[in-house]
Amino acid sequence: xxxxxxxxxxxxxxxxxxxxxxxxxxxxxxxxxxxxxxxxxxxxxxxxxxxxxxxxxxxxxxxxxxxxxxxxxxxxxxxxxxxxxxxxxxxxxxxxxxxx
Length: 100
Fold this sequence. Notes:
Elements: H1 22-42, H2 47-63, H3 73-85
């Protein structure tokens, strides 16, 4: 009898730092670069201007926050968009398609 036990985090070894894909790191790093450029160019003088300059970093960080049962928030949003905007009438192509 062959019993195989697969650890729950077996896919984590494929990820960078066991949490992020390449796209996640590109998303956060581009948000960081845009934020640094915005802060150096605009030099915010008020709190509202600082928050506006920090928005790219904050949005990128929120999108890559890991959540249970999904990879991160970005994946959840992508799945929701696909659910609401993709075709919902499915054509049956099962093994009993011509069984009438």
